[in-house]
Specification:
The chain is of the alpha+beta class. The protein folds into two domains: 45 residues; 158 residues, 2-Layer Sandwich (Heat Shock Protein 90). Helices cover 45% and strands 21% of the residues. It contains seven helices and seven strands. The chain has a five-stranded mixed β-sheet with strand order 2-4-5-7-6, with helices on one face. The chain has a two-stranded antiparallel ribbon with strand order 1-3. Helix 1 packs antiparallel against helix 2, helix 2 runs parallel beside helix 6 and helix 3 packs across helix 4. The longest helix is centred in the first third of the chain and has 32 residues. The protein is globular.
C-alpha cells in the first residue's frame, strides 16, 4: 500500500522531532479537509442524480449576490485583486444558495489558475427585454485552458492538464457541480479561454418575469 505524506515524514525523520511531528500533523489536517470536501461534493452530486436535492426559488438581484461573494472572497484571499464592474445588476428567479455556490466555484477556479497579483473581474448584465437573459461573468488573467480541453472541463473528475493538477490539487468535481446547478435552473454556460492570457466563464440565466414587468 502506498504510504501517505505524513507516514513518509514520520518514517524518514522519526517521531521525536517536534518540527517533523508538526509538519506531519499539518499534512494530516490538509488531507482530512480534502477528503471532507470530496465526500461533500460526491454527496451533492449523488443527491442531484437521485433528484432529492430541492430548489428553493426566490427573486433576487445577481449584482448584490456577486458583491457579497467578492467581499467574502477578499477576506480570505489577499493575493489577488477582485473587482466587480460598476452598475451591473439583473434579477433572476433561482435558489440563492445554489447560485452563490456556482459563482463561488468559478471564483475559486480563477484563484487557482491566476498568479499572485492577478485580477479577477466579475460582471452582471441584463440583456434587453426581448432577449430576456442575465449574464454573470467571471474573468481572470490566469494561465488559461487549452482549446482541446474546454469541451471536457465540466465532466466529473476531469483534470485537463497534469501540470495544472499538481499545482492546484482539487477533485475535478467543482465545475461538474456548477454545471448541474446551472442546468437545473435552465441556464447555460459559455467559456472563452486563451493559454497564458486568461479565461472568461459566463453563466446565462433566464431573466425573471418580475424583472421584465418592472421595466415596463
Amino acid at each position: 500500500m502506498k504510504k501517505s505524506l505524513p507516514d513518509l515524514l514520520l518514517d524518514r525523520w522519526g517521531k521525536n522531532d517536534p518540527e517533523t511531528m508538526q509538519e506531519a500533523i499539518d499534512a494530516i489536517k490538509s488531507e482530512s479537509e480534502n477528503m471532507k470536501d470530496l465526500v461533500e461534493q460526491l454527496l451533492f452530486l449523488a443527491r442531484g442524480d437521485n433528484e432529492t436535492l430541492q430548489l428553493y426559488l426566490e427573486v433576487f438581484d445577481c449584482g448584490e449576490l456577486v458583491e457579497e461573494i467578492l467581499q467574502e472572497t477578499q477576506m480570505i484571499d489577499s493575493y489577488h485583486r477582485f473587482r466587480k464592474k460598476e452598475g451591473t445588476s439583473g434579477l433572476i428567479n433561482a435558489d440563492r444558495q445554489l447560485m452563490k455556490q456556482a459563482i463561488r466555484i468559478l471564483a475559486d477556479n480563477s484563484i487557482k489558475y491566476t498568479p499572485q497579483d492577478g485580477e479577477i473581474v466579475v460582471s452582471v448584465n441584463a440583456d434587453n427585454a426581448e432577449q430576456g437573459f442575465v449574464r454573470i461573468s467571471v474573468q481572470d488573467n490566469g494561465i488559461g485552458i487549452d482549446p482541446d480541453n474546454i469541451p471536457y472541463i465540466f465532466d466529473r473528475f476531469y483534470r485537463s492538464d497534469e501540470s495544472r493538477a499538481k499545482k492546484t490539487g482539487g477533485s475535478g468535481l467543482g465545475l461538474a457541480i456548477m454545471k448541474w446547478i446551472i442546468d437545473r435552473h435552465a441556464g447555460t454556460i459559455e467559456v472563452i479561454s486563451r493559454k497564458d492570457i486568461g479565461t472568461r466563464t459566463t453563466i446565462i440565466m433566464p431573466e425573471t418575469i418580475q424583472a421584465k414587468s418592472q421595466e415596463r
